């Protein structure tokens, strides 16, 4: 399927835009499984402490209780995520205050998995909930402008899977290498986020990583290094990065459309996948077929693409006869390709 197609008006279909997205597109689960992810059952206690009321005592807020509620809420907005959750567990009153802070409900509802990852990777003390909310409400990758369904954790940067896979993210380096290369001591490194990796299976190549390590952004290390004297500063070029590291410092994050209240995870075109499979059978593969199959769209972007995609339109017609893309393509049914990664977690999420 070439990108130079005759435009077709979606008005010829009686389906709503929601129906078109549901029938002719799918979410790539293999992209989500290639980065940091968590099994919901492993974090029930963390989730409940973040989202649900609990039986804390009604203790006095002392001096904090003398301040206007608006002032206390403003203080909460400036607390880092770790401190904010610790404050919430002090008493029922602080639980009420934190839970009604601007953006708390939106973030804990729609970015809960990312919050659990931020806490588990031990970078929660470096970012505020307001900063995470801002990323949640940002749609596009800040590096290339495509739909960004992921977040680069060392700087809470909205990014897309292509930038992760192509190595276009900011470089990261282990804390051990940062100390050696930039001649830094541990106290200096405490001022920047040091992400503790989570053992698991990473990248589209499904490579296992069992050993934990601490990773920091090279830009952060250079910044604190440049604040020191020339004699203490490291010399030489920027370090090279392992191809696996970008996957180990990112996680999925949906986009919250504040205007409509809708949540988007990004979708790929089922029609483009079917076209690719047909082209492989006939050995007539256009140069852009794989790129079109792998492209992730926002809902609005997909509706524009749908007008140009004859295979997606064919799926809509077939759906009226009871045939779905999942019946035609195993790749679409599985929502991507993966063999080894967390089989139980994978199929738990496929049922969602």
From TrEMBL:
Top-level taxonomic group: Eukaryota
Pfam families assigned: F-box (PF00646)
InterPro entries, A to Z: F-box-like_dom_sf (IPR036047), F-box_dom (IPR001810)
Transmembrane residue ranges: none
F-box domain residues: 61-107
Protein's UniProt name: F-box domain-containing protein
Organism: Aspergillus ibericus CBS 121593
């Amino acid at each position: 399927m070439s990108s130079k197609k005759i435009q077709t008006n979606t008005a010829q279909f009686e389906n709503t835009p929601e129906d078109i997205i549901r029938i002719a597109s799918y979410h790539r689960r293999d992209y989500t499984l290639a980065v940091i992810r968590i099994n919901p059952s492993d974090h029930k206690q963390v989730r409940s402490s973040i989202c649900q009321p609990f039986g804390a005592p009604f203790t006095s807020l002392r001096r904090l209780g003398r301040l206007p509620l608006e002032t206390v809420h403003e203080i909460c907005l400036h607390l880092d995520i770790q401190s904010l959750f610790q404050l919430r567990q002090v008493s029922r009153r602080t639980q009420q205050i934190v839970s009604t802070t601007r953006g708390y409900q939106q973030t804990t509802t729609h970015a809960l998995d990312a919050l659990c990852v931020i806490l588990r990777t031990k970078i929660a003390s470096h970012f505020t909930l307001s900063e995470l909310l801002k990323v949640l409400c940002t749609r596009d990758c800040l590096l290339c402008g495509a739909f960004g369904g992921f977040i680069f954790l060392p700087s809470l940067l909205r990014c897309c899977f292509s930038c992760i896979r192509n190595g276009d993210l900011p470089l990261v380096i282990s804390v051990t290498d940062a100390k050696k290369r930039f001649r830094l001591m541990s106290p200096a490194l405490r001022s920047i986020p040091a992400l503790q990796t989570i053992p698991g299976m990473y990248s589209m190549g499904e490579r296992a990583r069992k050993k934990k390590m601490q990773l920091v952004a090279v830009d952060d290390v250079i910044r604190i290094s440049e604040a020191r004297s020339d004699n203490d500063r490291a010399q030489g070029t920027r370090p090279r990065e392992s191809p696996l590291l970008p996957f180990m410092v990112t996680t999925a994050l949906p986009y919250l459309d504040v205007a409509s209240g809708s949540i988007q995870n990004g979708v790929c075109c089922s029609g483009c996948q079917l076209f690719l499979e047909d082209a492989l059978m006939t050995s007539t593969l256009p140069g852009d077929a794989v790129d079109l199959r792998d492209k992730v769209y926002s809902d609005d972007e997909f509706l524009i693409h749908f007008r140009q995609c004859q295979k997606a339109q064919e799926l809509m017609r077939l759906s009226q006869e009871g045939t779905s893309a999942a019946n035609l393509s195993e790749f679409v049914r599985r929502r991507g390709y993966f063999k080894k990664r967390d089989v139980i977690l994978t199929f738990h999420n496929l049922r969602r």
